[in-house]
Design brief:
The protein is an all-beta fold and 959 residues long. It contains one helix and 111 strands. 1% of the residues lie in helices and 49% in strands.
């Protein structure tokens, strides 16, 4: 039991029970066995080696640049020896401090932290240095120990270098590691721990996390399970979990990073039931994917059950890719939000399992955004209930019960089994193939230039279960719309139409396209079905193409009826029988061909080609087609393409203008049928967008003014931005007709603005514009005045912008004719500086601003100092004879020239002044008084600053 104040040289002792204040003083202390610290110990750049255990029962251990190695256990605990020789450890008033970058504390055994004191400069202060752990680590909060007695921060680092399994346990969320560095041991089990950020890539056995963690571009590998209770930002890094990942709380923000989970991912809370079995419930956890680089892979099943819905601070899924190998369940039970997985914008999902995958959404406010496919995509995906906003690639599903709004966006979707539509479906130039039945129990089906093929039945009907448990079909609020000549709907089975809605733009609208039926057709009105729910008109064509006689039942005719009907393979007897039962506008016999060709676009850019989509029904195939053109102001047509059997014919038309295209079809019997289509040829689309300025100060907006010419008009604009240091652009605003875009600046540098303009037929023209965002130091100081009278002061309002802030200001002056500067104020944070010139001359003033990084910017001013205006005018005489003249001379000094003069006089006995000459530059005028009396004469001088000085004289006139 000894006090050693300081070491003057290296010392070795067997055991050491220390008290008092001690400094290593740059020397080495070796303890061959155990060290017990009772007082304060300061490392002070020295070395401490303890071959046994180090027990800090009291006092402060301030490593302060030292290297401390303990081969046994380190305990920040009190110690009580029992009668049986055992030792009981408890809470201590001891303190551990690591605040120097050179602090190095290596613990070969276990580490125990159990201090009454929390964190702070006077308490346990872990702000820098390296803690190297080779054994277990226990932060203990029992027996009144502080919850924050090991709260590392700043630049404090920890590494794990043990040879066997290491366990880490924090009792309190207020304590935790700050930076975990490059560790050699991959067998570390963090049963409850906080890591603020990674300083290197690390591997753990398992990890139960709390607090805020940033992966910071590194890779965190957890070979077992991981539980998240706090916030995690992957931040361009990667988390690889060999087991399951359970997010019981906090926010998981991928932030440009990758999460790869081999097992299941659960956004759920964890509990136990009465039988001790683990159960999962609703969580306050949040999942965020908002970066194009976000990539989440779930090898097992995925469960989403969060109280929070969508929004910037909640579950926010606007970008990135989610890859699923197992089942997906979005849950709303036990208070979970119905919109806790509402993917949108550019968020994508891909199914990559090797066995059947099931998808079920409980809440209609949730759903997938873009469905991707690709080489490794799984086609055995059954969506029992779900929303997909759009198709990003050719995709295959096993079955699909749909809600929400689905847009195929020109892609192909194949459903091997049945498809049930309850929301809106827009084929939008794409292809939908349903190998089973297609039941549209709700929503609007818009072909919009697309193609649908149904191998079995199509029903525009709702479904319900009767008392016998059988599925029955009845009236629906669903709507079918075919308004584009490219619309093609093939039903190989039977077709049933039973909608509450009749015809109209927002309802059942059958004005164009082709409906081809190989089975029977039923238009039904019972259970409230509208009589006009199948009223074909305009250019709509219905083709009955089966060789067998059709059952055609139209309950609502004539309100429901066909427009143009084609029977392609019937006998004349069956044709006559069928047509006698239906209403139609036009009908084609089996031998009467119908030319249904059309232009894929009615507007093209000069120099490009227009496309004729050839299509015919009836008559005698095969068909041949010829194409002619003529100006819409002419009656003559010119041949562009002679007869060909091509499915599509692409032809150029260069001159800008309006045309009529004639398409002739001829079958093998020589029957000819013609159609006429309008075509407009326009100038090429040009992107005319520009920036208000190519140089912008940090904090100001980059102002983008979007503009375009040519193309098909009705332009929309998309704006993206990238730092030239980065390879990718970040979307600022999606396509919109609004031509003004303001981009807030958040960092300095050189940027590139990418503006895309799109016209109505999808042509996109890009334009890139460079812009510099400057945050360099700028001197923005001003003077109260740059022209003063002698004796007045000038106030300097010193100010700055940019740089690193914390500005100081200095000011100097000199006469314009002098060389040497004098100091008004040295560098201080005082920004209002007063300067009083001492002479009526021109002065130079220099104002300097300096930021916290030492950068200086100067600004120069000129200050004109003048004396007060002096009126030096005179009169040639004070007394004259009547009939004589007196000369009035205007003169001035100082003030600010040039000067003007006003000459006045009056009789001394009156009050009214009379002008001889006013506001003149004439320096002399004459006055010849008319009476022999006393006169008052006044000469008024005015300078360029409108300062006025008067001078009065007396003139006596005698006979």
């Amino acid at each position: 039991n000894a006090r050693v104040s300081s070491l003057d040289s290296a010392v070795t002792v067997t055991n050491f029970v220390q008290y008092g204040n001690m400094t290593l003083n740059g020397q080495k202390l070796t303890v061959l066995e155990n060290l017990t610290q009772q007082g304060d110990l300061y490392g002070d750049g020295g070395t401490l080696l303890v071959n046994g255990n180090y027990t800090q029962v009291n006092g402060t251990l301030d490593i302060n640049g030292a290297d401390i190695t303990v081969n046994g256990n380190y305990r920040l605990q009190s110690a009580q020896e029992n009668e049986d020789g055992t030792v009981t450890y408890g809470t201590t008033y001891g303190v551990l401090k690591m605040n120097d970058a050179n602090d190095h504390f290596t613990i070969g055994g276990n580490c125990y932290i159990q201090s009454y004191y929390g964190d702070g400069s006077s308490y346990n202060d872990l702000f820098d240095g390296l803690l190297e752990l080779k054994g277990n680590f226990y932060q203990i909060s029992k027996k009144n120990a502080s919850g924050s007695n090991f709260n590392a921060m700043g630049q404090h680092r920890v590494i794990f270098t043990g040879k066997t399994k290491q366990v880490v346990q924090f009792d309190s969320d207020a304590s935790g590691f700050h930076i975990v560095g490059d560790s050699t041991n991959k067998n570390v089990a963090l049963t409850n721990a906080r890591i603020d950020r990674l300083g290197a890539s690390v591997t753990f056995l398992r990890y139960a996390q709390y607090g805020n963690m940033n992966v910071s571009g590194h890779t965190l590998t957890v070979t077992g399970n991981m539980t998240q209770r706090g916030n995690i930002s992957i931040d361009n890094g990667m988390i690889k979990v060999g087991g399951s990942y359970t997010q019981t709380n906090g926010t998981l923000d991928l932030n440009g990073g990758t999460l790869d989970v081999t097992g299941s991912y659960r956004l759920q809370s964890i509990g136990t039931d009465d039988n001790g079995k683990t159960v999962y419930g609703t969580t306050y956890g949040v999942l965020q994917m908002n970066n194009a680089g976000d990539h989440m892979i779930v090898g097992g099943d995925c469960y989403i059950q969060s109280y929070y819905g969508e929004g910037g601070g909640y579950n926010d899924l606007t970008n990135g890719l989610l890859e699923l190998k197992g089942n997906f369940y979005q849950l709303t039970k036990n208070g979970a939000s119905g919109s806790n997985f509402n993917a949108k914008d550019n968020h994508k999902v891909k199914f990559i399992g090797t066995a059947k995958q099931t998808v079920r959404f409980d809440g209609s406010g949730s759903g997938f955004n873009i469905l991707m496919a690709g080489m490794n995509a799984n086609s055995n995906v059954a969506i029992a209930k779900g929303r997909i906003n759009s198709i990003g690639e050719t995709a295959v599903l096993a079955s699909f019960t749909q809600y929400g709004k689905l847009n195929l966006n020109g892609q192909k979707l194949t459903i091997i089994g049945n498809f049930v539509q309850t929301g809106d479906v827009n084929i939008n130039g794409g292809k939908l193939f349903v190998k089973g039945n297609y039941t549209q129990s709700g929503g609007t089906l818009r072909l919009n230039g697309g193609r649908i093929e149904v191998s079995k039945n199509y029903r525009l009907q709702s479904t319900k279960i009767d008392s016998d448990g059988q599925t029955v079909y009845t009236t629906t609020y669903g709507v079918l719309q075919m308004t584009n000549p490219a619309d093609y709907f093939l039903v190989k089975g039977d077709c049933y139409v039973q909608s509450y809605y009749g015809e109209g733009g927002s309802y059942n609208d059958l004005s164009n396209g082709v409906l081809e039926l190989k089975g029977d057709f039923y238009q039904l009105c019972y259970d409230g079905g509208s009589r006009s729910n199948f009223h074909a008109h305009g250019q709509h064509i219905t083709v009955f193409s089966d060789t067998n006689p059709h059952v055609i039942r139209v309950e609502g005719q004539p309100a429901s009826s066909f427009n143009t009907v084609v029977f392609t393979t019937m006998t004349m007897y069956d044709y006559q029988k069928a047509t006698s039962l239906i209403h139609y506008n036009a009908v084609h016999e089996p031998n009467d061909p119908l030319n249904a060709s059309y232009l894929t676009s009615h507007t093209i850019v000069t120099g490009s080609k227009f496309v004729v989509q050839t299509r015919s029904f009836g008559g005698h195939a095969p068909y041949a087609y010829a194409v002619y053109y003529g100006r819409n102001t002419e009656t003559q047509f010119h041949l562009l393409q002679d007869y060909t059997a091509a499915d599509q014919i692409a032809l150029p038309l260069v001159p800008v203008g309006d045309y009529i295209i004639r398409i002739d079809m001829q079958d093998t019997e020589g029957h000819i049928s013609s159609v006429y289509e309008d075509l407009k040829v326009v100038k090429a689309l040009e992107n005319k967008s520009m920036l208000d300025s190519a140089e912008v100060r940090l904090g100001q907006d980059i102002v983008v003014r979007c503009a375009a010419e040519g193309g098909s008009g009705e332009y929309q604009y998309e704006v993206s931005l990238r730092n030239t240091k980065d390879s990718k652009f970040t979307l600022v605003r999606d396509y919109s007709a609004d031509s003004l875009v303001r981009i807030p600046t958040q960092q300095e540098g050189t940027f590139e603005v990418l503006i895309r303009v799109r016209d109505t037929f999808g042509k996109v023209v890009k334009k890139k514009i460079a812009v510099t965002v400057d945050n360099s130091l700028v001197n923005t100081s001003i003077l109260s005045s740059e022209a003063v009278r002698l004796g007045e002061s000038v106030t300097i309002y010193a100010s700055a912008d940019g740089g690193t802030g914390a500005y100081t200001y200095a000011a100097y002056y000199k006469k314009a004719t002098a060389s040497n500067w004098s100091t008004i104020q040295g560098y201080r944070d005082n920004s209002m500086i007063t300067f009083k010139p001492g002479a009526a001359v021109m002065y130079d003033v220099c104002v300097k601003v300096r930021d916290s990084a030492g950068k200086i910017q100067k600004l120069y001013f000129k200050v004109s100092v003048t004396k007060d205006l002096v009126n030096q005018s005179s009169v040639s005489a004070s007394s004259i004879q009547l009939g004589e003249k007196v000369s009035l001379k205007g003169a001035a000094q100082y003030g600010t020239g040039p000067y003007t003069y006003t000459y006045q006089y009056k009789k001394a006995s009156t009050n009214n002044w009379l002008n001889i000459k006013a506001d003149t530059t004439a320096a002399s005028v004459g006055l010849k008084p008319a009476s022999a009396v006393a006169y008052d004469i006044r000469i008024i001088v005015k300078d360029s600053e409108n300062t006025v000085v008067e001078k009065t004289f007396t003139l006596n006139v005698t006979k």
